[in-house]
Amino acid sequence: MADRAPTARELARESVHASILAAARARLTEEGPSQLSLRAVARDVGMVSSAVYRYFPSRDDLLTALLIADYDELGAAVEAADAAAGPGTGARWVAVCRAIRTWSLAHPGDFALLFGSPVPGYAAPRETVEPASRTTLTIVRVVADAQGASASAPAGRHGSPVPPTAAPGVVGTAVADGVASLHAFGLDLPEEVLLRALMAWTTVFGVISFELFGHYVGSVSDGAAYFDEVIARLADDLGFAADFG
C-alpha cells in the first residue's frame, strides 16, 4: 500500500515547524543557547507566543528539537564524508574529521548548543542520545576498521597501540561506560584502542572549540593547517596513518 500523501494542513504545519527551528537556530548564533526564548523566536517568525506553544510547549521542548536536528545534521554530514572518502581508513579519517570542523565553523551557534556550556535548567532527554551518537560512532568505526586492516597488514610502524609504560593502569574503570555503549552498538575494541579513540574524539572537538571561541589569538594563525596537523598525530596515536590525498 502506497504511503498517504500529506495533507495541505500537515504541510503547512511542517512549514511553520521548520520556520520556528530556523529562527531558533539564528538566535543561537546571535545570543547563545542560554538566552534562547520562545517569545523572541515567536517575534522572529511573526507569530504570537501562544501560537508557538502549540508547536513547542516549552523552551526545553524547543531545545530538544534543536539538539536532535543539529546532531542529525552533523551526523549526516560526517557519514556522507566517510562514504565519499573511499575504502582507505586514513582517507576516511581525514574526511570525517574535516567534515566535523567544516560543519562546526558554518554553525557556531549550533556547535555551542551541542558542545558548549550546558544551558541552565535544561537536561537533555534520552531521545537525544541516538542522534548524538552518529558522529562518535562514525569516528569509532573508522578506528575499528583501521585496527582490522592493521591486523592483516605486514609488520611495520603502525598497528594496535599498547599502553605507555607510565600509564596509571585505570583504563577499564575510566572508560567502562564507553565500552558498554560501544558493545550495545555492536563494536568491540581493545580497551587501549577505545581509550585512544575517546582521547581523539575529545581532542577533535576541543581543537574546534578553541578555534570557534577565539582562543587561538597569539598561538595559532592558520586554523585549518593546525587542525590537519592535530588529526595526523591523532591517527598516528591510534596506530594508522592519516591520508590527506
Give the SSE map.
Blueprint lengths: L7 H24 L6 H7 L4 H4 L6 H26 L4 H18 L1 H8 L13 H24 L18 H4 L1 H9 L6 H22 L10 H16 L7
Helix pairs in contact: 1-2, 1-6, 4-5, 4-6, 4-7, 5-7, 5-10, 5-11, 7-10, 10-11
Work out the strand percent: under 5%
Instruction: Indicate the overall shape.
Output: globular
Distance between the termini: 47 Å
Mean pLDDT across all residues, rounded?
88
Let me know the largest β-sheet.
none
3D architecture notes:
With 245 residues, this protein is mostly helical. It has helices at 8-31, 38-44, 49-52, 59-84, 89-106, 108-115, 129-152, 171-174, 176-184, 191-212, 223-238. The N and C termini lie far apart (47 Å).
Provide a brief overview of the structure.
This protein is an all-alpha fold. The chain has helices spanning 8-31, 38-44, 49-52, 59-84, 89-106, 108-115, 129-152, 171-174, 176-184, 191-212, 223-238.
Features:
0% strand, 245 residues, globular, mainly alpha, 66% helix, single chain
